[in-house]
Amino acid sequence: xxxxxxxxxxxxxxxxxxxxxxxxxxxxxxxxxxxxxxFLIAMAITVxxxxxxxxxxxxxxxxxxxxxxxxxxxxxxTVLGLFGxxxxxxxxxxxxxxxxxxxxxxxxxxxxxxxxxxxxxxxxESILYYRQQLQWLGGMGxxxxxxxxxxxxxxxxxxxxxxxxxGPLKDSKLTPRITETAKALWYIYATLTVACMLAYxxxxxxxFDALGHSFSTVAIGGFSTYDASxxxxxxxxxEIICVGFxxxxxFSFSLHFIAWREKRLTHYFQDPEGRFLMLFLxxxxxxxxxxxxxxxxxxxxxxxxxGVFQVVSVATTAGFGxxxxxxxxxxLPFLLFMAAFVGGCSGSTGGGMKVIRIILIVKQxxxxxxxxxxxxxxxxxKVGKVSVPDGIAQAVWGFFSVYVLLFFLMLVGVMATxxxxxxxxxxxxxxxxxxxxxxxxxxxxxxxxxEVAKWILxxxxxxxxLEIFTVLVLFTPAFWRx
Length: 482
Known about the structure:
The chain is mainly alpha-helical. The chain has 23 helices and 2 strands. A two-stranded antiparallel sheet has the order 1-2. Helix 1 runs parallel beside helix 4, helix 2 (22-31) packs antiparallel against helix 3 (36-54) and helix 8 (142-149) crosses helix 10.
C-alpha cells in the first residue's frame, strides 16, 4: 500500500470536487441571493487542501490494488462529506451547525435524502440548488466518474470501480476498457437527467425546480426545493413523471447500457432482478391502494395516486413525498418502510440491500427446504437460467448477517441517546438503506434528533452507500498487514 499514492489521488479528487462549487456561484448570481461568496470560500478551502495533499506526492505513480481502492473510496466519501458541508455552514444567519451541516452533506452525497432543515422553501436558491447537486453527484458515484479521469493522470481505475459499483456481482464490465464503462454510465446518467428535467418542465415546473428535482429523481435521492416535496405541486402529471424516472433509475444501469448500445428493450423483461422488482412493487401497490380505499383515507383517484407514488418512492429508496405516509392507517407505514430494505437493483442508483440479494436469500431458503425433503440431492441456486456460484451465495449471507448486526448495534446506540424505539429503528433503517423518510419523531425532519445520534446516522449512511464491507474491511488487522 502506497500512502503517497493514496494522498495524491485524494488531493486530485478534492481539487476536482472543488469545481462542482462553481455552478452554485452562478445560480447565486442569477437569483442575486448574496450567497456566492460562501461557495467561493468553500471552494478555496477545498482546492487548497487538495493541492496540499497532491503537490508533495505529485510524482508518486503506481497501479492501484484492490486494497488501495477500498481505502481511497472510504476516505474520499468521508472527506467529501466533510468538505461538502462547508457551504452549509457559511451561507448566513440561517447557516447550519457543524453536526447538522455534515449530516445534510452526507445525506445528499449518499442520496439518503434525510434533512435537518425546516423552512426549505425560504432557503437561498443557490443553497437549494447545491443540495440537489450533491445528490446528483453522489447518485452514480463520484468515484465512478473519477475512474473515467484517473487513467489519463497515470492512475489505474479498476480497483476503485470494484469498490464503488453496488451489488454482489462486482467483476462484470460493460465494455472491455473500464474507462469506457465509466464514461458510458455517465452519458446514460446525464441523458436521463436531461430527459427528466424536460419532462418536468412540460408538466408545469419552472426550469429551476425541474433541474433540481431531475437531479434528485434520477439519483433516487429525495431532496426537494420545498418542505412538501413533490406534494407541493399537487400535479398528477408530475407524479407520473417522477414515478417513471424513479423506476428507470431503480433498474440496473447495465440494462440501460444494453438498451443504448443494442437499441432494444426486450432484455428489461428477461432480467430476473428487474422482473422481481416490478412484481414486488405491483403487489405492494395493490395492497396499499386497497388499504387506503377500504379505510376511506382518500377518495378513489387520490388513493390510487398517493398509494402508487409512495410505494415506488419508498421501496426504491427515493424518499419523495406527496403525503405523510407515517399517518396512514394500520400496518401501512411499517409495511412501506420495510419495503425500503429491498431497495433498487444491483448497479442502480437505489439504496437498500438490493433486489438481487433478496432473490438469492429467498432461493437459498427454498433450497434448504428442498434439502430437508431430498437430503442427498444436489440443488443449484439459479437466477434466471444462470447458476450462482456458492461463493457469491455465501457472500450474500455474510452481507445480510453483518447488515443485521450493524443495524442492531446502531439501533442501540441511537436509543442510548434518548430517542424512542420507533424513531430510533426507523432513522437507523432509513440511513442504512439510504432512504430518507422515517417514522416517529423524525417523520417530518431530523432536526430534533440528538447530536450524537446524528453522527451515528452519518456512519449508517456511509455504510449503506459503500455497502458495509468497503468500510468494515478497513478495521481488520489483515487489511493493514503487508
